[in-house]
Prior knowledge:
Helix content: under 10%
Number of domains: 3
Shape: elongated
CATH class of the largest domain: Mainly Beta
Radius of gyration: 30 Å
CATH topology of the largest domain: Methylamine Dehydrogenase, Chain H
Number of helices: 2
Distance between the termini: 22 Å
Amino acid sequence: xxxxxITLALVAGTVAVADSARADSAPADPxxxxxxxxxxxxxxxxxxxxxxxxxxxxxxxxxxxxxxxANARPAGAAAGTHTVKRTxxxxxxxxxxxxxTRFAPVLNGDVQAISTAAxxxxxxxxxxxxxxxSAAKSRxxxxxxxxxxxTPAFKASANGTVKSIVRRGSTVYFGGSFTxxxxxxxxxxxxxxxxxGGLSTWTPSATGxxxxxxxxxxxGKKVVVGGAxxxxxxxxxxxxxxxxxxxxxxxxxxxxxxxxxxxxxxNSAITSLTSTSTGLYGTGYTFGDGGNLEGAFRADWxxxxxxxxxxxxxxxYGSAVVGGVVYIAGHAHYxxxxxxxxxxxxxxxxxxxxxxxxxxxxxxTNTASGHAYANFGGRPAPSLLDWYPDLTPGTFTxxxxxxxxxxxxxxxxxxxxxxxxxxxxxQQGLVRFATPSLAPNRVGPVSSGAAFVPQLTSPAxxxxxxxxxxxxxxxxxxxxYDVYRDGDPxxxxxxxxxxxVWFRPxxxxxxxxxxxGHSYAYRVRAxxxxxxxxxxxxxxxxxxxxxxxxxxxxxxxxxxxxxxRFGQSKGSAVxxxxxxxxxxxxxxxxxxxxxxxxxxxxxxxFSASATTTAATATPSWPSVSxxxxxxxxxAAPGHGGTVVDFGSNxxxxxxxxxxxxxxxxxxxxxxxxxxxxxxxxxxxxxxxxSRWHFATATVTPTTMTLYLDGRAVARRSGSFALSRTWGYxxxxxxxxxxxxxxxxxxxxxxxxxxxxxTDAQVAAxxxxxxxx
Length: 772
């Protein structure tokens, strides 16, 4: 029968795919630019504060800290204990975390900017303060780098907050939210003599929003300006939130990245700029209209051409470049466009993440909605590295944030903000991390005991299938797993697999040659590259005395990679009888409905609701060129929806949908894949008739076939490239493509295969289930 082809607009695009390379504190190839060695996730002893840290500057081995706080206390000290006065500034040794006892300036407002003087013995500071000690000092000052004492000769001032300061020779440039400086009109940008504070003739202006950040090019000829402004030196293009001006004349210079990154106005901004010898790094946020980037970018110094961009959704506040790694402070909640974590419900925020300093891939087409997220698809992107220390948000600012700033050296990284704990241990406002050679390397796999147990099935006589969810380590991707049986100290199975705190795939093996009817106990140990280890609890199973029969025997015998019967009597898990990935029921699907097979297996009732769906909890990587998917379903007239598909999210609705079997609004069975032209096949007649139907779809590089009740009803020849992206097998509901959001009816016996079933194999399944 000829194929019935439906042409639909399927969301398409190249989705970044995580590969086998490791990028953490023990990477497989540290010389590879895509897998640089990160610092570890071990929090080192660091002074604490009782407010918020806005800015940090590392000079030699000293970290200067600015923010809004009244006291400091040692690491481990509870709030309000062992305090010493430190008003909005402090300094400590980056190697030891020891507080500098001599450096103790007294300010009556916060500090948001710190820069060094030409002699290295003094600092320029900016913020909202109006006094340093007892001396009147309006928003900008020079202080002694050793004691914090005011340098009276420096007379510069501003009538609004100073948010950023950079220095070139004897000239100090600063930006913020002021309209005059040192007695003359200056629109949020000014330059003064570094010794006297006398105002220079440098007069570019930024209007329409504040200046948050300045960066000086290595040759000193360019000052790059970032913020929420909408014009720079009277120009909006370039000059919308980001631009470059001449350090001598103040005139606009070519800066091409500002045609790509457009963050300005009341709802978006560039939040930080970081100057290095190899390029400029910037961060930003957008919330609503007016901007297009939440994430970070890198540009070259020649004309500001884009080197890479990462569009991890979530406000991004600061960056630091250390040893080929870019450390980010913010609250990223979606990095799916660069091969990282997906959106969860509720949102999961990663407040300290890291990227390679070089471009290693392309940004995927953005399909996530909300906040006017832009599409940077096809642009160069860095690699998201496996480094996820956990920072607990604070309450000091009322904004619910954790880290606001990050700085570092070749050996240490320091985060500052208003967080109250790191990796679950109390630590307020500041924390250090170090390279593996200087760190204790004690952060290891996170799950143990009852939270780390295998799922056991015995599908045949003398056989046990042992499957488990991989563990997670905040700073190591590759973990070794040892499986023990009945307390024997020698493992019966050992493997090394990649995972992360957000990507925990299923692992499993088949243990054969066991005694039928005998009970065996299994447990799993996970170990990271530094020897940190966790052990899960024992789980027991009685070995089957016979193998599967009837329909189940045919499905498993034909090489199914996953087989979910949906005949569970209770609980939220639908066991995978062919693989190691259970389906997890969401809400209240009704178990125990009459099944499709003569073997007596029951089915599950779905009721057209987001609260009655099922999906694999862990993603899989269908990196195959051929596949088959099959399912039994029963839909009443006028009803239908998604039966089974491979979606990009779980349990949220998917951004992209692929390999979809569904009942359309007019009752037809349809199957489509995300390939060139978005090909879709459909049945010639309605299947919404309250009867059980068996749907199977197969794909090869040259053929798509749709089967209904054991017979081919649509077949198409062509060129079909199956997408190789990670995702989740979902049953009973997903983003509409071929049918409604959610299925109304009963679903039974869903199976997936890594090969294309033949006509005879599909017919054999139908006969085994129905007896006809």
